Amino acid sequence: MDPLCLDLSRPPPPLAAAFDSASEISAMRGTAPVFVVWKLKRALNVGLEKDLKEAVKLVHGCVDDMIRSKKETMGGNSGGDLLSRFLESGLDDEMVRDMVISFLMAGRDTTSAAVTWLFWLLTGHREIEKQVVDEITSIKNGGEQLGFDDLKGMNFIKACLCESMRLYPPVVGLQACVRRRFARRDTVYRGNTFPNGMGRMEELWGKDRLEFRPDRWLDENGTVKMVSPYNFQCFRPVPRVCLGKEMAFSSK
């Protein structure tokens, strides 16, 4: 994560700007009342379709550069990161590129939204913030880089993330409710019931459901408890559970 991306006085990095442009234009395709319009623009390479083509080209170029750079640094050694594992699997570069882009698109805005809400909540709960800092320093006190094994041991931080996403999920729209952008009451669509306020229902989370209490996620041993994905739907319940769930916790 580049902290300079938070500085609004600076121009956005080219890759981030291209991602935003491509995502916005692609979404506009889906809401267009007449599909033939954007298809005609694509055929003529004009307007927003021209911008989309240029944005996709830039994204592809940046990811291709990442893949080439990783291959050069890997040599014959096995890397522990996700990109290294993709390359070691024997997939061709184009397939790896598309997989990397998929992970970037799935985790880019959701990760930033989740971290933003977490920081906002921590600023109002200094005692919890201190526990977060204490857990980090207890694992790495010398400023060393954290590894995946270190992250797995940060139970309190994971509990904070779960509690933050329970109150303020990064993805808030119900895609099944096509006629309502946000369900403001219990909604039944095609025989399926979507209760309003799933993350704040008293029968699921208790009378203190509106409070930021990370300890509700911890058992008596201080490890994160297993909660039914039908109660905590931030990553969607099975069989359509988010494939990058554990990776999301690591990146946050």
Question: Can you describe what's shown?
Answer:
GO terms for molecular function: heme binding; iron ion binding; monooxygenase activity; oxidoreductase activity, acting on paired donors, with incorporation or reduction of molecular oxygen. Its cofactor is heme. This is Cytochrome. The chain is an all-alpha fold and about 250 residues long. It has 2 domains: about 1-90, no CATH class; about 110-250, no CATH class. The chain contains 10 helices and 2 strands; from the N terminus they run ααααααααββαα. Strands 1-2 form a two-stranded antiparallel ribbon.
Spell out the blueprint of helices and strands:
Elements: H1 14-31, H2 35-44, H3 47-74, H4 82-88, H5 93-123, H6 126-139, H7 148-152, H8 155-167, E1 187-189, E2 192-194, H9 202-205, H10 245-251
Antiparallel strand pairs: 1-2
Helix pairs in contact: 1-3, 2-3, 3-5, 5-8
